[in-house]
């Protein structure tokens, strides 16, 4: 009797404005847990992202290259503008991957997990704790440091840094023009 193992598909979602070393850490670890990993870049205009969606998708595509080369995980990057559980179902995933940095993250994430569970109880959520070297990194802090000319090279890849700084420059030029 031959048994076929079902492929496990995970969905890791975020705004990724910008994608950070912390996100990379979660992606790398999640790729060891699932056969296929969908990275969902949320359009999320409610958060008023600095980087356009196309830039965030492009940066994510660059960030995942070494993970794709080092693992057997099939990794895809997609955008979505719907409920997370709907995006998860659209892409055939059964597991939502979430990264946790601190207790404040846990409070928000547990609420989101409860809502997602009510919307679709067949989808599980798996939490990955941030590693000690990335738990302080957030997209918000990265943008703030960059806005004031600080060194963000430890927080993002060189490619993402270049794109983020270009977006900041464009944003400043637009603000100056609007005054």
From TrEMBL:
Keyword vocabulary terms for this entry: ATP-binding, Coenzyme A biosynthesis, Cytoplasm, Magnesium, Nucleotide-binding, Nucleotidyltransferase, Transferase
Q: What class of enzyme is it?
A: transferase
**What's the cofactor?**
Mg(2+)
Q: Which GO terms describe its molecular function?
A: pantetheine-phosphate adenylyltransferase activity
Q: Which residues take part in binding substrate? A: 15, 47, 84, 98
Residues the record marks as site: Transition state stabilizer: 23
Q: Can the keyword GTP-binding be found in this entry's annotation?
A: no
For whether the record's keyword set contains Coiled coil, the answer is no
User: Reaction catalysed?
Assistant: (R)-4'-phosphopantetheine + ATP + H(+) = 3'-dephospho-CoA + diphosphate
Q: State its Enzyme Commission number(s).
A: 2.7.7.3
Under Pfam families, the record lists: CTP_transf_like
Instruction: Name the InterPro entries on file.
Output: Cyt_trans-like, PPAT, Rossmann-like_a/b/a_fold
Q: Provide the assembly information.
A: Homohexamer.
* Entry's family note: Belongs to the bacterial CoaD family.
Q: What does this protein do?
A: Reversibly transfers an adenylyl group from ATP to 4'-phosphopantetheine, yielding dephospho-CoA (dPCoA) and pyrophosphate.
Query: What is the protein name stated in its UniProt record?
Result: Phosphopantetheine adenylyltransferase
Query: Which source organism?
Result: Acetobacter thailandicus
Q: Which gene encodes it?
A: coaD
């Amino acid at each position: 009797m031959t048994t076929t193992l079902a492929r496990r598909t995970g969905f890791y979602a975020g705004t990724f404005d910008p994608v950070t070393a912390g996100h990379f850490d979660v992606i790398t670890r999640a790729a060891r847990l699932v056969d296929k990993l969908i990275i969902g870049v949320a359009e999320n205009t409610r958060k008023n992202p600095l980087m356009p969606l196309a830039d965030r998708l492009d940066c994510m595509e660059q960030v995942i290259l070494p993970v794709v080369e080092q693992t057997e995980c099939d990794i895809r990057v997609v955008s979505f503008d719907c409920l997370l559980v709907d995006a998860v179902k659209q892409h055939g995933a059964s597991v939502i991957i979430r990264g946790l940095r601190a207790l404040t993250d846990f409070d928000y994430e547990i609420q989101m997990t409860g809502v997602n569970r009510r919307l679709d109880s067949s989808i599980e959520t798996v939490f990955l704790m941030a590693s000690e070297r990335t738990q302080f990194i957030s997209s918000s802090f990265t943008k703030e440091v960059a806005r004031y000319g600080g060194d963000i090279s430890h927080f993002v890849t060189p490619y993402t840094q270049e794109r983020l700084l270009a977006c900041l420059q464009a944003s400043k030029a637009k603000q100056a023009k609007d005054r």
